[in-house]
From TrEMBL:
GO molecular function: (S)-3-amino-2-methylpropionate transaminase activity; 4-aminobutyrate:2-oxoglutarate transaminase activity; pyridoxal phosphate binding
Pfam entry (one): Aminotran_3
InterPro entries in UniProt: 4NH2But_aminotransferase_euk (IPR004631), Aminotrans_3 (IPR005814), Aminotrans_3_PPA_site (IPR049704), PyrdxlP-dep_Trfase (IPR015424), PyrdxlP-dep_Trfase_major (IPR015421), PyrdxlP-dep_Trfase_small (IPR015422)
Keywords: Aminotransferase, Pyridoxal phosphate, Transferase
Protein name: (S)-3-amino-2-methylpropionate transaminase
Length: 502
C-alpha cells in the first residue's frame, strides 16, 4: 500500500483543523462483538440475476407512475429478503448496501433485536395507538425518553423535543431560535397585546423581521422553513417563495489536507469573515440574524467538511452577535462518525444551542439548551410531536450500539475504508480525487456527474449500492454494523469497475 493510502483522514484537531494519522489496527475488540449484530442469515456476497432496475421493478415503476410522479425510484426492494448489510430487490438481486436508505438504517435490515422489539407485547400499544404526545403521552413515556434520547444526548444539552422527521425538526428548531431571540429583546417579559394581535396579520411587531444565516450547498430539508436555509439543487427550491436571508460560503477545502494546510486555513478565515460581514449587513438592513444554521458535514451538497477551528469560530461569531447556533446532525448523528454526534469532534467551548436529529435515530427531534425552551405551551407543537413506536425501536437500536461498541466500530472501520479508498484513488488519479471522510461517512469526487453516475450504475449491476451528492461526488453511508469483510467486497468491486472504465 502506498504512503498516501496508509494515512487516513479521521480526527479533527481543535488547534489546527484536520490532521492525518496512521490507521488504527483492525483488531479492536468491538469488531468481534459487532459481528454478532449480523446473524448467520446475512449473505456472504452480492448475488445479481438481472440489471438494476430489473423487469419486475420496471413493471412496478410503470404502475406507480400511473398514480404519482416517481422519477426518483431506482428499484423496488424486497424487504423480507433483505438482511444485515444487504438489500434485495423484487427481481432477485442482492446488493451490498453502502447507502442504506440515505443514511437512515442504523443496524442493517431485519436486525433480530429490532424485530424482537416489534414483537414485544409491551410495545404493542405504542404501535397500535399513536397518541398525541403533546397532550396525552403514555405513562411510560418519560422513562422511555430517559432510556433512549436522553441517554445519548449531546454533552451539555438536557432538553429534547421530539418530532417526526428531519425537516420538521430543523423547522421547529428555527422557531425555538426566533423565540429565544425575541425573549432576550423583551428582557424576559411576555409579549405585548400589540405583538399578539399583529402577528395574526403577519405584521410587525408580532411578526418581526428576523433572519437565519445559512451556507451555500447546505441542505436542511424540504418544508418551507427548512428550504429557506437549503441551497443545494434548484429542484428543491424552484417556484417556492423564500425569505431574503443571508447565505455565506462554506469552506471548500483542498485535498490531501496535509498538503494544503495554509490554503485551507485561509479559506476558512475567508468564510468566517463573510459570516461576520453578512451579519453586520443584515443588522443594518433592519433584519438582524437570530440564528446560524450549519450541517456538521454538508452531506447532500457534496460531503463538504470544515475543521474544528472553523466551527469554533462560527460559535464565537454567533455569541458575539446574540444569535443562536444550530448544528444539523440529521445525517451525521447516531455514531457514524466515530463519535455519537459529529460536533463532538469540534471541541466547542460550549454546546450548540440546537441540534436536530433524525435518520439513524429512527425518530426526529432536536436537542436544545435551556434558553431555547419555549415559555408557553403550544408554541412548538403538532398533532403527534413524534412517534412512541419509533422510540420503542430506538431503544433496541441503542441497546445494540452500546453493547456491541458500534460507535467505536465506525471509527475503526472508517479508518480501514478510507485507507482502501486512498489506495484506489492513487491507482486511478484521473478518475478519482478528494477522498475524505469521518468514521464511515466517506466520499470521493469524480471528474464530472456523467462519470460518477456511470460508476454508480456499474457498481449497482455488480452488486454494490452507493449514493451520490453534490455535482460529481460518490458518497458512502453504510450501517453501523459494517465490518471489514463488507468493506473488502465494496473495494474489490469498486476497483474492478474503475479498471473497466479506464
Amino acid at each position: 500500500m502506498t504512503e498516501m493510502a496508509t494515512r487516513t483522514l479521521l480526527r479533527i484537531d481543535s488547534r489546527c483543523g484536520w490532521r492525518w494519522r496512521a490507521a488504527l489496527p483492525v483488531s479492536y475488540a468491538g469488531l468481534a462483538r459487532g459481528q454478532s449484530t449480523t446473524a448467520a442469515a446475512e449473505p456472504q456476497r452480492p448475488e445479481m440475476k438481472t440489471e438494476v432496475p430489473g423487469p419486475k421493478s420496471l413493471q412496478l415503476l410503470k404502475e406507480l407512475s400511473a398514480v404519482q410522479e416517481s422519477g426518483a425510484v431506482q428499484f423496488f426492494a424486497d424487504y423480507e429478503r433483505s438482511f444485515g448489510n444487504y438489500i434485495a430487490d423484487v427481481d432477485g438481486n442482492l446488493m451490498l448496501d453502502m447507502y442504506t436508505q440515505i443514511a437512515s438504517v442504523p443496524l442493517g435490515y431485519n436486525h433480530p433485536r429490532v424485530i424482537q422489539a416489534f414483537k414485544d407485547p409491551k410495545n404493542q400499544a405504542a404501535f397500535v395507538n399513536r397518541p398525541a404526545l403533546g397532550l396525552f403521552p403514555s405513562g411510560d413515556h418519560v422513562q422511555r425518553m430517559r432510556q433512549t434520547l436522553m441517554s445519548v444526548a449531546p454533552p451539555g444539552l438536557s432538553n429534547v423535543q421530539t418530532m417526526a422527521c428531519g425537516a420538521c425538526s430543523v423547522e421547529h428548531g428555527q422557531k425555538a431560535m426566533f423565540m429565544s431571540y425575541q425573549r432576550r429583546k423583551r428582557g424576559g417579559e411576555g409579549p405585548s397585546k400589540e405583538e399578539m394581535e399583529s402577528c395574526l396579520k403577519n405584521q410587525a411587531p408580532g411578526a418581526p423581521n428576523l433572519a437565519i444565516l445559512s451556507f451555500k450547498d447546505g441542505f436542511h430539508g424540504r418544508t418551507m422553513g427548512a428550504l429557506a436555509v437549503t441551497h443545494t439543487k434548484w429542484i428543491h427550491k424552484l417556484d417556492f417563495p423564500a425569505p431574503d436571508w443571508p447565505v455565506a460560503d462554506f469552506p471548500k477545502l483542498r485535498y490531501p489536507l496535509d498538503q494544503f494546510t495554509r490554503e485551507n486555513e485561509q479559506e476558512e478565515r475567508r468564510c468566517l469573515n463573510m459570516v461576520r460581514d453578512l451579519m453586520a449587513t443584515w443588522e443594518k438592513k433592519g433584519c438582524p440574524v437570530a440564528g446560524i444554521v450549519s450541517e456538521t458535514v454538508q452531506c447532500e451538497g457534496g460531503d463538504n467538511y470544515a475543521s474544528a477551528s472553523f466551527f469554533q469560530g462560527l460559535q464565537d461569531i454567533a455569541k458575539e452577535n446574540g444569535a443562536s447556533l444550530m448544528l444539523d446532525e440529521v445525517q451525521t448523528g447516531c455514531g457514524a462518525t466515530g463519535k455519537f454526534w459529529a460536533h463532538e469532534h469540534f471541541n466547542l467551548r460550549s454546546p450548540p444551542d440546537v441540534v436536530p436529529f433524525a435518520k439513524k435515530m429512527l425518530t426526529g427531534g432536536f436537542y436544545h439548551s435551556d434558553e431555547q425552551r419555549p415559555t408557553e405551551s403550544f408554541r412548538i407543537f403538532n398533532t403527534w410531536v413524534g412517534d412512541p413506536s419509533k422510540m420503542a425501536l430506538l431503544e433496541a437500536v441503542l441497546e445494540v450500539i452500546k453493547k456491541d461498541g458500534l460507535v467505536d466500530n465506525s471509527k475503526v472501520i472508517g479508518d480501514y475504508m478510507l485507507n482502501g479508498l486512498l489506495d484506489i484513488q492513487n491507482s486511478f488519479p484521473a478518475i478519482l480525487s478528494g477522498v475524505r471522510g469521518l468514521g464511515t461517512l466517506a466520499a470521493v469526487d469524480c471528474p464530472d456527474a456523467a462519470t460518477r453516475d456511470k460508476i454508480i450504475t456499474l457498481m449497482k449491476n455488480k452488486g454494490v449500492h452507493a449514493g451520490t451528492c453534490g455535482t460529481a461526488t460518490l458518497r458512502l453511508r453504510p450501517t453501523l454494523t459494517i465490518q471489514r469483510k463488507h468493506v473488502d467486497i465494496f473495494l474489490d468491486i469498486f476497483r474492478g469497475v474503475l479498471k473497466d472504465l479506464k
